């Protein structure tokens, strides 16, 4: 069985440019298995698997620094890949429903037949917690968060889309390592979590602690954050409580 591939072959197989692969090497994210006398990089099966995990995390919106931290501290590779798979499968299924909805709508328009009203919105992303948020924090706060979201551009827009996932992905290996929630590495990630939240809403210390508890108590939050790893959700909650006491309580 073949065990070595050139950088050009890896670029062709993965769709990642040779320049990007060299950049991953330069920042310590993915070193080649060996460099030949002519300076050409060669990758083994271990490196290909690592590249696959890098690309999976990129698909989930995780930034390169957080990917490096996650790869450095990860425990069971299979467990991590299962969590990535579950998220990707969920998104795949949602997009498949959305494609069917659009196709049915086209067929309905061209054929002159009305679609059932309850099928018009299958597959669309909704805000499943909006009603609870309005009840807990009021219409004004929720409406303001939507206005803030629509106004986001550039880095803030990217952070709004991917920031929470970056935090969750980077917290998981710290939890597996047994790092305390008041450790600076954890609190740095919680600070990022709070920064993302502040793009929509400015929480008080009490509100931030309450939100962490909601994450644990609400099954939908537990599933979307932890992907079946309830300990990760509790870890996030506890880290948020520390941050609320030390940073927001001032």
Structural commentary:
With 250 residues, this protein is an all-alpha fold. It folds into two domains: 5-59, Orthogonal Bundle (Multidrug-efflux Transporter Regulator, Chain: A, Domain 2); 126-248, no CATH class. The protein contains twelve helices and three strands, in the order βααββαααααααααα. The chain has helices spanning 7-14, 18-26, 45-59, 64-73, 77-111, 130-137, 139-151, 154-177, 184-198, 205-217, 219-226, 230-248; strands at residues 5-6, 34-35, 41-43. Strands 1-3-2 form a three-stranded antiparallel β-sheet. α4 packs parallel to α8 (154-177). The chain is globular. The mean pLDDT is 79.
The biggest sheet amounts to:
3 strands, antiparallel
Q: State the share of residues found in helices, binned by percent.
A: over 70%
Output the radius of gyration. Answer: 22 Å
Number of domains: 2
Order of strands across the biggest sheet?
A: 1-3-2
Which band does the percent of strand residues land in? under 5%
Low-confidence stretches: none
Oligomeric state of the chains present here:
single chain
Shape by Cα distribution:
globular
SSE run: EHHEEHHHHHHHHHH
- End-to-end Cα distance: 61 Å
Element layout with pairings:
Elements: E1 5-6, H1 7-14, H2 18-26, E2 34-35, E3 41-43, H3 45-59, H4 64-73, H5 77-111, H6 130-137, H7 139-151, H8 154-177, H9 184-198, H10 205-217, H11 219-226, H12 230-248
Helix pairs in contact: 4-8, 6-7, 8-9, 8-12, 9-12, 10-11, 10-12, 11-12
């Amino acid at each position: 069985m073949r065990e070595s591939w050139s950088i050009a072959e890896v670029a062709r197989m993965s769709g990642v440019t040779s320049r990007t692969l060299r950049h991953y090497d330069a920042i310590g994210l993915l070193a080649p298995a060996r460099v030949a006398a002519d300076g050409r990089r060669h990758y083994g099966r271990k490196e290909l698997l690592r590249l696959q995990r890098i690309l999976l995390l990129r698909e989930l919106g995780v930034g390169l620094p957080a990917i490096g931290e996650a790869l450095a501290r990860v425990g069971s590779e299979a467990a991590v890949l299962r969590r990535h798979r579950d998220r990707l499968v969920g998104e795949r299924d949602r997009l498949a429903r959305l494609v069917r909805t659009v196709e049915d709508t086209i067929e309905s328009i061209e054929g002159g037949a009305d679609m059932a009203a309850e099928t018009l919105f299958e597959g669309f992303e909704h805000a499943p917690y909006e009603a609870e948020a309005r009840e807990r924090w009021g219409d004004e706060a929720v409406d303001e968060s939507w206005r803030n979201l629509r106004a986001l551009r550039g880095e803030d827009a990217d952070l709004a889309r991917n920031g929470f996932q970056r935090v969750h992905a980077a917290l998981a290996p710290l939890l597996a390592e047994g790092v305390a929630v008041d450790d600076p590495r954890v609190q740095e990630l919680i600070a990022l979590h709070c920064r993302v939240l502040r793009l929509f809403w400015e929480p008080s210390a009490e509100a931030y602690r309450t939100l962490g508890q909601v994450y644990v108590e609400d099954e939908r939050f537990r599933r979307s954050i932890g992907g079946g790893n309830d300990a990760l959700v509790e870890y996030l909650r506890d880290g948020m409580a520390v941050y609320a006491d030390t940073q927001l309580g001032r």
